Amino acid sequence: MEEIYSLNLGDYIEIENKLPNEEKKQAKIKIHKLKKDSISNLHLDCCFYCGNSFIETKKKENGCCNSHTVPKSFLDNISENGNVNFFNSIYQSEFNSKNNGLNNAGTFKLICRKCDREIFKSYENIDNYNSKPNVKMLAQIDMKNNLKNIDKCIKNLELYKVLEEGLSIFNEVSKRKEKFEIDLSEYKEAYDYAKKVSQKPFNDYNILYFKKLNYIVPVAYQGTVALINDLRGNIINNVYSNDKKYKIKNISLCVFPLENSSVIIIFTNKKNKRYSEFFNDFKKLDLEKQLSIVNYILFSYTEEYFLSPLISKNTLDQLKELVYKTSDFYRKTENPDDKKEVFKKIREIYNYDESLKFPNLLLEKFSIENLKKENI
């Protein structure tokens, strides 16, 4: 039996906290330089959507746009003095910022201003959420999710190039680079498909969950999630598979705070049948349990959410254990056939039965309206 061990985000914070102050200072300088060098190597010549050149254009609208993943108009509903809090307001790493202005909240630079203004119109229109989103809206969300994923992969690949050049002890670089290259190819394929559907909509998405709440939740998120196990503990995605032909299947998750309400949307491509059992069981639960599981997924699987600064420090501290669940698993031997121990640890970490023990920011008690009353 091979030995498996995990390293989660909580372990990284413990390591960071043990560093002497001078080492922390030097680490911050190195990390900043690595990120700066990797970004400076990026040369995006043209819009990912229309193909028009960023360099040759004389029109401002054809220049590269600072696109928001979650529409800025949605983020406005949870911001305070033009600011929102990030993942690090819970994680508490000294190497990352805890909050930022709306202009820099979850942005990417792959398309021109004209395309950014035109191609997401339907889903960014708040009036379109009086009922379930239509196919065109879902395709636009899917397209933007994949653009964000592509942007992240490109930046990570550039970062790992710099790491290869600058850190001889970084022995995991080649493996991680290969993973990002595979991910990038899959995200580009998914983007192309979503673009095709958005231009000529046909019914190719399955809404797994849609709920409109009559209050404003203090959190916003839009992105893809690859669940590892279902409510019964069965594996949905073997995210640690070494088989290059094995494909991870995602769901798209949206938590949108609107002007006087909120919507939660979970959907996927109709060909994706991996989540059928999960959502068959999920739909049988009462609303509070459903919302607790969505909240559990949001904070244990993702990092790119946005939080209202009105949320108390005590509430954020109670979410730490959930945030720290994000894990990397390592094998001490190279036996690809022995998966039982890995999956056992996964089931222990991602246990939906414990979802009710954490603060559920999707409940009305944490609504923006109620948080404002508490802060008067």
Describe the structure.
With 376 residues, the protein is α+β, with helices and mostly antiparallel strands. It is 41% helix and 14% strand. The chain contains 14 helices and 11 strands. It has helices spanning 9-18, 21-40, 72-75, 88-91, 113-118, 121-124, 135-166, 173-199, 276-282, 287-301, 313-318, 320-323, 340-349, 368-374, and strands at 4-8, 67-68, 83-85, 99-101, 107-108, 205-213, 219-225, 251-257, 262-269, 306-307, 327-331. It has a 5-stranded antiparallel sheet with strand order 6-9-8-7-10. The protein has a two-stranded antiparallel sheet with strand order 1-11. Strands 2-5 form a two-stranded antiparallel sheet. The radius of gyration is 21 Å and the shape is globular. The N and C termini lie far apart (58 Å). The model is unreliable at 1-16, 95-99 and 328-333 (pLDDT under 50).
